[in-house]
Design goal:
single chain, 428 residues, mainly alpha, 0% strand
Length: 428
Protein backbone atom coordinates (compact mmCIF):
# COMPACT_ATOMS: atom_id res chain seq x y z
CA UNK A 1 0.00 0.00 0.00
CA UNK A 2 2.83 2.40 0.85
CA UNK A 3 4.44 1.64 -2.51
CA UNK A 4 1.15 2.44 -4.26
CA UNK A 5 0.89 5.81 -2.51
CA UNK A 6 4.50 6.55 -3.40
CA UNK A 7 3.81 5.83 -7.09
CA UNK A 8 0.73 8.08 -7.00
CA UNK A 9 2.75 10.84 -5.30
CA UNK A 10 5.49 10.66 -7.91
CA UNK A 11 2.94 10.76 -10.71
CA UNK A 12 1.36 13.86 -9.16
CA UNK A 13 4.84 15.37 -8.77
CA UNK A 14 5.59 14.77 -12.46
CA UNK A 15 2.27 16.33 -13.49
CA UNK A 16 3.05 19.38 -11.34
CA UNK A 17 6.44 19.65 -13.04
CA UNK A 18 4.89 19.50 -16.52
CA UNK A 19 2.33 22.14 -15.53
CA UNK A 20 4.97 24.44 -14.09
CA UNK A 21 7.54 24.19 -16.86
CA UNK A 22 4.84 24.56 -19.49
CA UNK A 23 4.21 28.04 -18.07
CA UNK A 24 0.55 27.35 -17.31
CA UNK A 25 1.07 28.20 -13.62
CA UNK A 26 2.71 31.56 -14.20
CA UNK A 27 2.67 34.40 -11.69
CA UNK A 28 0.40 36.51 -13.91
CA UNK A 29 -2.12 33.69 -14.35
CA UNK A 30 -2.26 32.90 -10.62
CA UNK A 31 -2.68 36.60 -9.78
CA UNK A 32 -5.37 37.21 -12.43
CA UNK A 33 -7.35 34.11 -11.59
CA UNK A 34 -7.22 34.38 -7.79
CA UNK A 35 -6.92 38.14 -7.36
CA UNK A 36 -4.23 37.72 -4.68
CA UNK A 37 -1.83 40.21 -6.26
CA UNK A 38 1.44 39.79 -8.10
CA UNK A 39 3.53 39.81 -4.93
CA UNK A 40 1.78 36.85 -3.34
CA UNK A 41 1.38 35.00 -6.64
CA UNK A 42 5.12 35.41 -7.21
CA UNK A 43 5.72 33.82 -3.82
CA UNK A 44 3.45 30.90 -4.72
CA UNK A 45 5.27 30.41 -8.04
CA UNK A 46 8.66 30.54 -6.29
CA UNK A 47 7.54 27.93 -3.75
CA UNK A 48 6.48 25.60 -6.57
CA UNK A 49 9.78 26.22 -8.35
CA UNK A 50 11.89 25.30 -5.35
CA UNK A 51 9.60 22.42 -4.41
CA UNK A 52 10.19 20.89 -7.85
CA UNK A 53 13.91 21.56 -7.63
CA UNK A 54 14.28 20.08 -4.15
CA UNK A 55 11.96 17.15 -4.93
CA UNK A 56 13.78 16.25 -8.15
CA UNK A 57 17.18 16.42 -6.43
CA UNK A 58 16.10 14.24 -3.50
CA UNK A 59 14.45 11.63 -5.72
CA UNK A 60 17.52 11.50 -7.96
CA UNK A 61 19.74 11.04 -4.91
CA UNK A 62 17.54 8.22 -3.57
CA UNK A 63 18.01 6.35 -6.87
CA UNK A 64 21.58 7.46 -7.52
CA UNK A 65 22.61 4.20 -9.20
CA UNK A 66 19.75 4.39 -11.71
CA UNK A 67 20.34 8.12 -12.11
CA UNK A 68 24.00 7.58 -12.99
CA UNK A 69 23.17 4.73 -15.37
CA UNK A 70 20.63 6.86 -17.26
CA UNK A 71 22.65 10.10 -17.22
CA UNK A 72 25.70 8.64 -18.94
CA UNK A 73 23.76 7.57 -22.05
CA UNK A 74 24.37 10.96 -23.68
CA UNK A 75 27.58 12.81 -22.87
CA UNK A 76 27.19 15.73 -25.30
CA UNK A 77 24.00 16.92 -23.64
CA UNK A 78 25.94 17.33 -20.41
CA UNK A 79 28.54 19.43 -22.21
CA UNK A 80 25.70 21.78 -23.23
CA UNK A 81 24.46 21.80 -19.65
CA UNK A 82 27.95 22.47 -18.27
CA UNK A 83 28.60 25.35 -20.67
CA UNK A 84 25.29 26.94 -19.66
CA UNK A 85 26.06 26.59 -15.96
CA UNK A 86 29.60 28.00 -16.34
CA UNK A 87 28.69 30.78 -18.75
CA UNK A 88 28.72 33.38 -15.95
CA UNK A 89 32.55 33.20 -16.20
CA UNK A 90 32.61 34.83 -19.65
CA UNK A 91 29.20 36.52 -19.45
CA UNK A 92 28.80 40.18 -20.42
CA UNK A 93 26.50 40.47 -17.39
CA UNK A 94 27.85 37.93 -14.86
CA UNK A 95 25.51 39.00 -12.05
CA UNK A 96 22.40 38.39 -14.13
CA UNK A 97 23.78 35.14 -15.58
CA UNK A 98 24.60 33.82 -12.10
CA UNK A 99 20.93 34.22 -11.19
CA UNK A 100 19.32 32.78 -14.32
CA UNK A 101 21.58 29.71 -14.62
CA UNK A 102 19.45 28.22 -11.86
CA UNK A 103 16.72 27.84 -14.47
CA UNK A 104 18.97 25.48 -16.41
CA UNK A 105 19.69 23.50 -13.25
CA UNK A 106 15.99 23.26 -12.36
CA UNK A 107 14.93 22.15 -15.85
CA UNK A 108 17.77 19.65 -16.10
CA UNK A 109 17.09 18.19 -12.64
CA UNK A 110 13.46 17.61 -13.51
CA UNK A 111 14.31 16.25 -16.97
CA UNK A 112 16.81 13.77 -15.53
CA UNK A 113 14.28 12.69 -12.90
CA UNK A 114 11.62 12.30 -15.60
CA UNK A 115 13.97 10.14 -17.69
CA UNK A 116 15.18 7.96 -14.80
CA UNK A 117 11.78 7.41 -13.18
CA UNK A 118 9.37 6.93 -16.10
CA UNK A 119 9.56 4.78 -19.22
CA UNK A 120 8.83 6.27 -22.63
CA UNK A 121 5.24 5.05 -22.63
CA UNK A 122 4.65 6.63 -19.21
CA UNK A 123 6.35 9.86 -20.28
CA UNK A 124 4.12 10.10 -23.35
CA UNK A 125 0.94 9.53 -21.35
CA UNK A 126 1.89 12.06 -18.67
CA UNK A 127 2.74 14.70 -21.27
CA UNK A 128 -0.34 14.09 -23.42
CA UNK A 129 -2.96 14.02 -20.67
CA UNK A 130 -1.43 16.88 -18.68
CA UNK A 131 -1.42 19.08 -21.78
CA UNK A 132 -4.94 17.83 -22.48
CA UNK A 133 -5.92 19.04 -19.00
CA UNK A 134 -4.41 22.43 -19.80
CA UNK A 135 -6.56 22.45 -22.94
CA UNK A 136 -9.72 21.70 -20.96
CA UNK A 137 -9.03 24.43 -18.37
CA UNK A 138 -8.08 26.91 -21.13
CA UNK A 139 -11.37 26.19 -22.92
CA UNK A 140 -13.39 26.73 -19.73
CA UNK A 141 -11.57 30.01 -19.10
CA UNK A 142 -12.14 31.24 -22.65
CA UNK A 143 -15.87 30.40 -22.49
CA UNK A 144 -16.66 31.20 -18.86
CA UNK A 145 -14.13 33.94 -18.10
CA UNK A 146 -13.18 35.58 -21.40
CA UNK A 147 -11.46 38.50 -19.65
CA UNK A 148 -8.78 35.98 -18.64
CA UNK A 149 -8.94 33.34 -21.38
CA UNK A 150 -9.42 35.53 -24.47
CA UNK A 151 -7.18 38.33 -25.73
CA UNK A 152 -8.84 41.70 -25.29
CA UNK A 153 -6.10 43.86 -26.80
CA UNK A 154 -3.82 43.46 -29.83
CA UNK A 155 -5.14 40.05 -30.92
CA UNK A 156 -8.73 40.62 -29.86
CA UNK A 157 -10.75 37.42 -29.96
CA UNK A 158 -7.78 35.05 -29.99
CA UNK A 159 -7.92 32.42 -27.24
CA UNK A 160 -5.08 32.59 -24.70
CA UNK A 161 -6.42 30.23 -22.02
CA UNK A 162 -4.03 29.78 -19.10
CA UNK A 163 -1.36 31.79 -20.92
CA UNK A 164 -0.97 35.53 -21.31
CA UNK A 165 -0.47 35.29 -25.06
CA UNK A 166 -2.08 33.35 -27.87
CA UNK A 167 1.28 31.96 -29.02
CA UNK A 168 1.91 30.43 -25.61
CA UNK A 169 -1.30 28.40 -25.76
CA UNK A 170 -0.72 27.68 -29.45
CA UNK A 171 2.73 26.16 -28.91
CA UNK A 172 1.66 23.78 -26.17
CA UNK A 173 -1.54 22.78 -27.90
CA UNK A 174 0.56 22.02 -30.99
CA UNK A 175 2.69 19.75 -28.81
CA UNK A 176 -0.50 18.26 -27.40
CA UNK A 177 -1.72 17.55 -30.94
CA UNK A 178 1.49 15.65 -31.61
CA UNK A 179 1.33 13.63 -28.38
CA UNK A 180 -2.31 12.61 -28.84
CA UNK A 181 -1.74 11.87 -32.54
CA UNK A 182 0.93 9.36 -31.49
CA UNK A 183 -1.48 7.74 -29.01
CA UNK A 184 -4.41 7.45 -31.42
CA UNK A 185 -2.13 5.85 -34.01
CA UNK A 186 -1.81 2.80 -31.76
CA UNK A 187 -4.62 0.54 -32.97
CA UNK A 188 -4.38 -1.92 -30.09
CA UNK A 189 -5.94 0.59 -27.73
CA UNK A 190 -9.15 0.64 -29.75
CA UNK A 191 -10.42 -2.21 -27.58
CA UNK A 192 -10.48 0.18 -24.59
CA UNK A 193 -13.41 2.49 -25.35
CA UNK A 194 -12.70 4.98 -22.57
CA UNK A 195 -9.05 5.32 -23.57
CA UNK A 196 -10.04 5.54 -27.22
CA UNK A 197 -12.52 8.33 -26.45
CA UNK A 198 -10.06 10.28 -24.28
CA UNK A 199 -7.23 10.16 -26.81
CA UNK A 200 -9.39 11.18 -29.75
CA UNK A 201 -11.09 13.83 -27.61
CA UNK A 202 -7.70 15.19 -26.56
CA UNK A 203 -6.54 15.33 -30.18
CA UNK A 204 -9.67 17.12 -31.42
CA UNK A 205 -9.68 19.58 -28.52
CA UNK A 206 -5.99 20.40 -28.93
CA UNK A 207 -6.38 20.95 -32.68
CA UNK A 208 -9.46 23.13 -32.13
CA UNK A 209 -7.57 25.27 -29.61
CA UNK A 210 -4.68 25.69 -32.05
CA UNK A 211 -7.18 27.09 -34.56
CA UNK A 212 -8.84 29.34 -31.95
CA UNK A 213 -5.50 30.88 -30.93
CA UNK A 214 -5.19 32.13 -34.54
CA UNK A 215 -1.49 31.22 -34.40
CA UNK A 216 -0.58 30.41 -38.00
CA UNK A 217 2.78 28.93 -36.98
CA UNK A 218 1.21 26.55 -34.47
CA UNK A 219 -1.45 25.48 -36.97
CA UNK A 220 1.10 24.88 -39.74
CA UNK A 221 3.37 22.87 -37.45
CA UNK A 222 0.42 20.86 -36.08
CA UNK A 223 -0.80 19.85 -39.52
CA UNK A 224 2.74 19.10 -40.69
CA UNK A 225 3.30 17.00 -37.54
CA UNK A 226 0.26 14.85 -38.27
CA UNK A 227 1.44 14.30 -41.86
CA UNK A 228 5.00 13.49 -40.80
CA UNK A 229 3.70 11.16 -38.09
CA UNK A 230 1.66 9.27 -40.68
CA UNK A 231 4.77 8.84 -42.83
CA UNK A 232 6.78 7.66 -39.82
CA UNK A 233 4.13 5.13 -38.83
CA UNK A 234 4.02 3.84 -42.41
CA UNK A 235 7.76 3.36 -42.34
CA UNK A 236 7.59 1.81 -38.86
CA UNK A 237 4.97 -0.75 -39.81
CA UNK A 238 6.33 -1.72 -43.20
CA UNK A 239 10.04 -1.38 -42.65
CA UNK A 240 12.46 -2.61 -45.29
CA UNK A 241 9.80 -4.59 -47.10
CA UNK A 242 8.32 -1.44 -48.59
CA UNK A 243 11.06 1.08 -47.97
CA UNK A 244 10.56 2.29 -51.52
CA UNK A 245 7.34 4.04 -50.43
CA UNK A 246 9.18 5.85 -47.67
CA UNK A 247 11.93 6.97 -50.05
CA UNK A 248 9.43 8.21 -52.62
CA UNK A 249 7.53 10.12 -49.93
CA UNK A 250 10.76 11.65 -48.67
CA UNK A 251 11.67 12.67 -52.21
CA UNK A 252 8.30 14.32 -52.73
CA UNK A 253 8.55 16.14 -49.40
CA UNK A 254 12.05 17.33 -50.23
CA UNK A 255 10.82 18.60 -53.61
CA UNK A 256 7.99 20.55 -51.97
CA UNK A 257 10.38 22.07 -49.41
CA UNK A 258 12.82 23.01 -52.17
CA UNK A 259 10.03 24.65 -54.15
CA UNK A 260 8.86 26.67 -51.15
CA UNK A 261 12.42 27.71 -50.36
CA UNK A 262 13.05 28.81 -53.94
CA UNK A 263 9.84 30.83 -54.13
CA UNK A 264 9.29 31.82 -50.52
CA UNK A 265 9.24 35.57 -51.15
CA UNK A 266 6.56 35.20 -53.84
CA UNK A 267 4.51 32.84 -51.70
CA UNK A 268 4.63 35.01 -48.60
CA UNK A 269 3.86 38.15 -50.55
CA UNK A 270 0.88 36.46 -52.19
CA UNK A 271 -0.42 35.56 -48.72
CA UNK A 272 -0.05 39.16 -47.58
CA UNK A 273 2.77 38.35 -45.15
CA UNK A 274 5.94 40.29 -44.51
CA UNK A 275 8.76 38.67 -46.50
CA UNK A 276 11.01 39.02 -43.49
CA UNK A 277 8.67 36.74 -41.49
CA UNK A 278 7.43 39.66 -39.38
CA UNK A 279 10.94 41.01 -38.88
CA UNK A 280 12.46 37.71 -37.81
CA UNK A 281 15.14 37.61 -40.51
CA UNK A 282 16.26 41.13 -39.60
CA UNK A 283 16.60 40.08 -35.96
CA UNK A 284 18.52 36.96 -36.99
CA UNK A 285 21.02 38.89 -39.08
CA UNK A 286 21.56 41.52 -36.38
CA UNK A 287 21.98 38.84 -33.71
CA UNK A 288 24.46 36.85 -35.80
CA UNK A 289 26.43 40.00 -36.50
CA UNK A 290 26.79 40.60 -32.75
CA UNK A 291 27.57 36.92 -32.19
CA UNK A 292 30.56 37.33 -34.50
CA UNK A 293 32.20 39.36 -31.72
CA UNK A 294 32.03 36.40 -29.28
CA UNK A 295 31.59 33.37 -31.56
CA UNK A 296 32.95 30.48 -29.52
CA UNK A 297 31.33 30.86 -26.10
CA UNK A 298 28.66 33.49 -26.73
CA UNK A 299 27.51 36.17 -24.31
CA UNK A 300 26.48 33.98 -21.38
CA UNK A 301 23.17 32.61 -20.19
CA UNK A 302 20.35 35.16 -20.59
CA UNK A 303 22.69 38.10 -21.22
CA UNK A 304 21.78 39.02 -24.79
CA UNK A 305 18.05 39.45 -24.08
CA UNK A 306 18.34 40.60 -20.47
CA UNK A 307 16.13 43.53 -19.37
CA UNK A 308 17.77 46.77 -20.43
CA UNK A 309 20.31 44.99 -22.64
CA UNK A 310 21.86 47.18 -25.32
CA UNK A 311 22.38 44.05 -27.43
CA UNK A 312 18.62 43.40 -27.51
CA UNK A 313 17.98 47.00 -28.53
CA UNK A 314 20.46 46.67 -31.39
CA UNK A 315 18.68 43.56 -32.65
CA UNK A 316 15.30 45.28 -32.30
CA UNK A 317 16.49 48.37 -34.15
CA UNK A 318 17.16 46.21 -37.19
CA UNK A 319 13.41 45.72 -37.58
CA UNK A 320 13.05 49.42 -38.17
CA UNK A 321 10.75 50.31 -35.30
CA UNK A 322 10.84 50.95 -31.57
CA UNK A 323 10.89 47.30 -30.60
CA UNK A 324 12.99 45.23 -28.20
CA UNK A 325 12.53 41.53 -28.96
CA UNK A 326 12.36 39.09 -26.02
CA UNK A 327 14.40 36.51 -27.94
CA UNK A 328 15.77 35.81 -31.41
CA UNK A 329 12.68 33.88 -32.59
CA UNK A 330 15.09 31.06 -33.44
CA UNK A 331 16.14 28.46 -30.91
CA UNK A 332 19.46 27.65 -32.57
CA UNK A 333 20.56 31.29 -32.76
CA UNK A 334 19.54 31.87 -29.14
CA UNK A 335 21.54 28.86 -28.00
CA UNK A 336 24.60 30.15 -29.89
CA UNK A 337 24.13 33.62 -28.36
CA UNK A 338 24.21 32.09 -24.89
CA UNK A 339 26.96 29.47 -25.13
CA UNK A 340 28.53 30.10 -28.53
CA UNK A 341 29.05 27.92 -31.55
CA UNK A 342 30.78 25.33 -29.37
CA UNK A 343 27.60 24.87 -27.35
CA UNK A 344 25.42 24.89 -30.47
CA UNK A 345 27.55 22.24 -32.22
CA UNK A 346 27.49 20.06 -29.09
CA UNK A 347 23.70 20.30 -28.96
CA UNK A 348 23.39 19.49 -32.68
CA UNK A 349 25.71 16.52 -32.14
CA UNK A 350 23.50 15.29 -29.31
CA UNK A 351 20.40 15.91 -31.42
CA UNK A 352 21.63 13.91 -34.42
CA UNK A 353 22.77 11.02 -32.22
CA UNK A 354 19.37 11.00 -30.51
CA UNK A 355 17.62 11.24 -33.88
CA UNK A 356 19.54 8.22 -35.16
CA UNK A 357 18.61 6.27 -32.03
CA UNK A 358 14.99 7.33 -32.45
CA UNK A 359 14.95 6.05 -36.04
CA UNK A 360 16.40 2.73 -34.88
CA UNK A 361 13.87 2.48 -32.08
CA UNK A 362 10.97 3.10 -34.43
CA UNK A 363 12.38 0.48 -36.81
CA UNK A 364 12.65 -2.30 -34.24
CA UNK A 365 9.18 -1.75 -32.78
CA UNK A 366 5.66 -1.20 -34.03
CA UNK A 367 4.37 0.25 -30.76
CA UNK A 368 3.14 3.86 -30.86
CA UNK A 369 5.27 4.85 -27.89
CA UNK A 370 8.40 4.03 -29.86
CA UNK A 371 7.55 6.57 -32.56
CA UNK A 372 7.23 9.34 -29.94
CA UNK A 373 10.98 10.25 -29.77
CA UNK A 374 11.20 10.58 -33.56
CA UNK A 375 7.98 12.60 -33.73
CA UNK A 376 8.99 15.00 -30.92
CA UNK A 377 12.48 15.57 -32.33
CA UNK A 378 11.03 16.43 -35.74
CA UNK A 379 8.50 18.78 -34.13
CA UNK A 380 11.21 20.47 -32.03
CA UNK A 381 13.56 20.87 -35.00
CA UNK A 382 10.89 22.55 -37.15
CA UNK A 383 9.45 24.82 -34.46
CA UNK A 384 12.83 26.21 -33.47
CA UNK A 385 13.36 27.81 -36.85
CA UNK A 386 10.85 30.56 -36.03
CA UNK A 387 10.55 30.28 -32.23
CA UNK A 388 13.01 29.98 -29.35
CA UNK A 389 12.22 26.68 -27.65
CA UNK A 390 15.46 25.06 -26.53
CA UNK A 391 16.89 26.50 -23.32
CA UNK A 392 15.37 29.97 -23.43
CA UNK A 393 14.14 30.72 -19.89
CA UNK A 394 12.24 28.02 -18.00
CA UNK A 395 10.40 25.75 -20.39
CA UNK A 396 9.12 22.22 -20.85
CA UNK A 397 10.96 21.52 -24.10
CA UNK A 398 14.41 21.06 -22.56
CA UNK A 399 13.23 18.52 -19.92
CA UNK A 400 11.38 16.54 -22.60
CA UNK A 401 14.36 16.64 -24.95
CA UNK A 402 16.67 15.51 -22.14
CA UNK A 403 14.34 12.64 -21.24
CA UNK A 404 14.16 11.50 -24.87
CA UNK A 405 17.92 11.86 -25.40
CA UNK A 406 18.51 9.58 -22.41
CA UNK A 407 15.74 7.07 -23.19
CA UNK A 408 15.58 6.85 -27.00
CA UNK A 409 18.21 4.15 -27.48
CA UNK A 410 16.55 0.73 -27.94
CA UNK A 411 17.87 -2.32 -26.18
CA UNK A 412 20.17 -4.69 -28.02
CA UNK A 413 17.66 -7.50 -27.49
CA UNK A 414 14.88 -5.50 -29.19
CA UNK A 415 17.10 -4.83 -32.20
CA UNK A 416 18.06 -8.50 -32.44
CA UNK A 417 14.47 -9.73 -32.26
CA UNK A 418 13.26 -7.23 -34.83
CA UNK A 419 16.03 -8.06 -37.26
CA UNK A 420 15.26 -11.79 -36.90
CA UNK A 421 11.59 -11.09 -37.59
CA UNK A 422 12.44 -9.01 -40.67
CA UNK A 423 14.79 -11.74 -41.92
CA UNK A 424 12.08 -14.38 -41.62
CA UNK A 425 9.61 -12.13 -43.47
CA UNK A 426 12.04 -11.51 -46.32
CA UNK A 427 12.86 -15.23 -46.55
CA UNK A 428 9.16 -16.07 -46.70
Amino acid sequence: MNKRYFVISETAFAILGILFFSGSLSEDFIAELTGIGLGLSGTVASLMRYLLWLGSTLLLALRWRVTWSVARRDKLVWVVFGLSMLSFIWSQNPGFTSVVVREVLQMTSFGLYFASRFKLREQLHLIAFTLGGIGVVSSLLAIGLPSVGVDQDVFAGAWTGMYGHKNGLGKFMSLSVLAFAVLVSDSKFKINRLYYFLTWGGLCLSLALVVLTTSKTSLSVSLASILILYIYRLFQQQGNKRRLYFEVTFLLAFTIVLFIYSNWEILLTSMGRDITLTGRTDIWLASLEELGKHPWFGFGRGTFWAPGSSLARIAGAAVGRQYTPPHAHNGYIDLALEIGYIGLFCFLGSFFITYRRAITRSFVSRAAKDIWPLAFLSWLAVYNFTESMLMYQENLYWPIYLAIALCARPSGQAIHLRLRRRYKQSAT
